[in-house]
């Protein structure tokens, strides 16, 4: 683990003197980013975003719950935990054909990645065989594949990878310090272990957390610090706003100020410049201005489709209208063969923008 700068070390808030991809951000440095005047923070996040991405492209993923409810874990936010009564029944693993049909529909609606979630502590052997088949059939449609199945060991991760799984989602959820208030049936170390197994198997990592669970501002900074310590950074960083589901212990959690949520997205963008930051659960409860600010802060991925796993998401028509209003477009999926071409095209576009945009002339940063 890289050495942590002393908590009282002076904080360098300039971009110029530091390399882009760091893993050794101290909590104090991260908190100093959170504490910037809002406009300065947003400007910094935009600068970082524009240096690495097309600022008007948003990656679009669709989610499907392939096994819903009766989960043995006790995550206090989760409607699928068997520990709470949220009115969800126990469902069996969906049939492969149904999953593939949903994936086809998602592709037709414009998604480039299909994410499948199961309410498991970890997959059992007989389930793994089935989900591997799902992965290969969804992949054959030309979609990127992602799964979130709970904890996986290295062997399971390798088999999923060999079946064609591109991404594995496993969230850290919150800071190490606050974690014990939210989940008692698996540890933070268990989560880090799964993420390391996913990496070892050669898959891309999707890992983030949930905000608005009653955590302190320092917990939000500490969550991002844990994510930024992962080497390499997770390719995908979902930032969820808690969806307060009746029956869960979090149903009456105090609302998080949307501006604090936006700050967290901006800080995530600055800390992990090349990662896709996903404006994840909670969009249905957010107004358009908050979502627009999240994109301005550097979020460049969403879940698209009328449901998340068990809760609602904005209707597809509403998202299409929002994209139109904001001049956003879905990010095209990059195929391996096209990677270099796409990168070159993106770099050329960035250079052009740098040459002629007042935005850059004005910075002096
Ligand atoms: N069981 C697997 C696991 O936990 O690894 C996968 C499914 S689980 C539902 C995936 C993620 O959804 C959780 O880690 C959590 O971050 C997020 N999530 C679950 N319930 C949520 C809620 N009510 N609001 C926001 N995010 C939620
Ligand atoms: C993630 O970070 N958010 C998604 C996905 N990864 C699997 C799940 C959100 C779930 C919200 C509650 C529900 O719909 O059940
Ligand atoms: Fe189970 Fe995942 Fe929900 Fe936790 S978040 S209760 S592990 S489905």
State the main characteristics.
365 residues, TIM Barrel, ten-stranded parallel sheet, disordered C terminus, binds S-adenosylmethionine, binds iron/sulfur cluster
Helical fraction: 40-55%
- Which word captures the global form? globular
Question: End-to-end span in angstroms?
Answer: 30 Å
Number of helical segments? 13
Q: What is the number of beta strands?
A: 10
Please state the structural category: alpha/beta
Task: Please write out the topology.
Layout: H1 27-34, H2 38-52, E1 57-67, H3 96-109, E2 113-118, H4 125-139, E3 144-148, H5 154-163, E4 167-169, H6 176-182, H7 188-200, E5 204-206, E6 209-211, H8 217-229, E7 236-241, H9 258-271, E8 276-279, H10 288-296, E9 301-303, H11 316-326, E10 329-330, H12 339-356, H13 358-361
Parallel strand pairs: 1-2, 1-9, 1-10, 2-3, 3-4, 4-5, 6-7, 7-8, 8-9
Helix pairs in contact: 1-8, 2-9, 3-4, 4-5, 5-7, 8-9, 9-10
Bound molecules: S-adenosylmethionine, 6-(5-methyl-2-OXO-imidazolidin-4-yl)-hexanoic acid and iron/sulfur cluster.
6-(5-methyl-2-OXO-imidazolidin-4-yl)-hexanoic acid is lined by residues 63, 79, 117, 148, 169, 171, 208, 238, 240, 243, 280-281, 308-311.
Write up this protein.
It is a single chain. By secondary structure, the chain is α/β, with parallel strands linked by helices. The chain has one domain: TIM Barrel (Alpha-Beta Barrel). It contains 13 helices and ten strands. The protein has helices spanning 27-34, 38-52, 96-109, 125-139, 154-163, 176-182, 188-200, 217-229, 258-271, 288-296, 316-326, 339-356, 358-361, and strands spanning 57-67, 113-118, 144-148, 167-169, 204-206, 209-211, 236-241, 276-279, 301-303, 329-330. Strands 1, 2, 3, 4, 5, 6, 7, 8, 9 and 10 form a ten-stranded parallel sheet that branches. Helix 10 links the parallel strand 8 and strand 9. Helix 4 packs parallel to helix 5 (154-163) and helix 8 runs parallel beside helix 9. The chain is globular. Residues 1-10 and 335-365 have low confidence and may be disordered. It binds S-adenosylmethionine, 6-(5-methyl-2-OXO-imidazolidin-4-yl)-hexanoic acid (DTB) and iron/sulfur cluster. Residues 71, 73, 75, 78, 80-81, 119, 150 line the site of iron/sulfur cluster.
């Amino acid at each position: 683990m890289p050495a942590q700068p002393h908590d009282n070390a002076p904080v360098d808030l300039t971009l110029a003197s530091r390399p882009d991809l760091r893993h050794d951000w101290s909590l104090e440095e991260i908190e100093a980013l959170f504490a910037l005047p809002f406009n300065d923070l947003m400007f910094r996040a935009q600068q970082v975003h524009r240096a690495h991405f097309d600022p008007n492209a948003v990656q679009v993923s669709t989610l499907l719950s392939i096994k819903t409810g009766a989960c043995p874990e006790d995550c206090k936010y989760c409607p699928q935990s068997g520990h709470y009564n949220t009115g969800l029944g126990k469902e069996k693993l969906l049939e492969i054909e149904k999953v593939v049909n949903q994936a086809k529909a998602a592709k037709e609606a414009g998604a480039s990645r299909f994410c499948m979630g199961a309410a498991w502590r970890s997959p059992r052997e007989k389930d793994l065989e089935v989900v591997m088949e799902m992965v290969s059939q969804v992949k054959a449609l030309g979609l990127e594949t992602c799964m979130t199945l709970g904890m996986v060991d290295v062997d399971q991760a390798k088999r999923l990878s060999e079946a064609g799984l591109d991404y594995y989602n496993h969230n850290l959820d919150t800071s190490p310090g606050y974690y014990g208030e939210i989940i008692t049936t698996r540890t933070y170390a268990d989560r880090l272990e799964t993420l390391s197994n996913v990496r070892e198997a050669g898959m891309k990592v999707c890992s983030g957390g949930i905000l608005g669970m009653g955590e302190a501002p320092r917990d939000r900074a500490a969550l991002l610090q844990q994510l930024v310590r992962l080497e390499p950074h997770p390719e995908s960083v979902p930032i969820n706003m808690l969806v307060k589901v009746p029956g869960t212990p979090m149903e009456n959690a105090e609302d998080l100020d949307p501006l604090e949520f936006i700050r967290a997205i901006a800080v995530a963008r600055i800390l992990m410049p090349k990662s896709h930051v996903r404006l994840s659960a909670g969009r249905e409860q957010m107004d358009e201005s908050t979502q627009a600010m999240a994109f301005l802060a550097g979020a460049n991925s969403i879940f698209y489709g009328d449901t998340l796993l068990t809760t609602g998401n904005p209707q597809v028509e509403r998202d299409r209208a929002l994209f139109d209003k904001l001049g956003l477009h879905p990010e095209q999926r990059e195929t391996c063969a096209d990677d270099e071409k796409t990168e070159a095209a993106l770099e050329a576009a960035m250079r052009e923008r740098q040459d002629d945009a007042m935005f850059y002339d004005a910075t002096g940063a």
